[in-house]
Amino acid sequence: MTTASQNKSQDGSTVTVLLALAANLGIAILKALAGLLTGSAALLSEAAHSVGDTVTELLLLTALRRSRRPADRRHPFGYGKERFFWSLLAAIGILASGAAFSFYEGYRTLRGHGGEEGRAWVGYAVLGLSAVLEGISFSQGVRQLRAESARMGETWRAYLRNPRDPTVKSVVLEDSAALIGIVLAFAGLALHQATGSAVYDGTAALAIAALLVVVAYQLAQTSKGLLIGQQANVRLVRAIRIRLAEQPEVEKVVDILTMIVGSDNILLCARLDFQDSLSAAELERACVRIDASLRQEFTDLDEVFLEPVPRNDPELRARVLARYGDILERDVQRPAPG
């Protein structure tokens, strides 16, 4: 990915988060007012849901801003992982605010402490307007998701399962959950009005709480993997391995280690068995040339380390097989001589 593409990706993520923030802030206010007017636990739960989403967008904006800081002495690999940290806090925020309050409202209503329902039309109107605003934010999130997956050469479903930028996934999942939550709140409100039983309203609130728990868990798992040190996409690792194996000075690619250190940055460490006939000067020139060619072809590479090692180290070989098996080996073919 070129620098221009990286900037475009970052700008797109910022627009997506800002749109989601504006939508969720307005929706939260409307739902809270509607919940107080109607006495609906489901509407109040949805208000808490939108408040949680608003806090989440603020945290994601913080992540986008802080992760762009350049590398310095204390952080030689940059601040890209800040995006993963703040995304983890956003997931915790969804769980602590939206899910907890929704569960409380649902439980309180089922215990018979809910208020009498009134002015149901206000709730329907607010839910309808909320659906429109959430739909606009969701459409922007999906467009950004498709753009990111296209740049990575993946389907949008594959990218959503294993993204390098958790902010886009956060917005898409939050908006998806918001649209489902609106349907649940509408059903609870309508059934309460039709039957006079608050059980449906309380059940809808509990269902919204469960929905938010699932979303928070998914986002937390994504951020956890990236924070711990997730490897780059296997397709990219295979492509790098094949390119290394094609170098005339390289007898065998012994091992490749990668780690995502930012949404557009990858650290690479390659252990290579070079030809024994190379002098020290020739080995140095080969490493410089290989480094430059890799960075030119794979522009997401932020740091490249090439380590000469013998291929017959049994302990190293065992570690490589334990990590990758033969999933990479079968894709590497040595070029024919001449």
Automatic annotation (TrEMBL):
Subcellular location: Membrane
Main location: membrane
InterPro entries xref list: Cation_efflux, Cation_efflux_CTD_sf, Cation_efflux_TM, Cation_efflux_TMD_sf, SLC30A9
Assigned keywords, A-Z: Membrane, Transmembrane, Transmembrane helix, Transport
Segments passing through the bilayer: 12-35, 84-104, 124-142, 171-192, 198-220
Residue span(s) of domain Cation efflux protein transmembrane: 17-224
Membrane topology: Multi-pass membrane protein
Annotated Gene3D superfamilies: Cation efflux protein transmembrane domain
PANTHER family: HUEL-CATION TRANSPORTER, PROTON-COUPLED ZINC ANTIPORTER SLC30A9, MITOCHONDRIAL
Classification via NCBIfam families: CDF (TIGR01297)
Protein name: Cation diffusion facilitator family transporter
Phylogenetic placement of the source organism: Bacteria, Bacillati, Actinomycetota, Actinomycetes, Micromonosporales
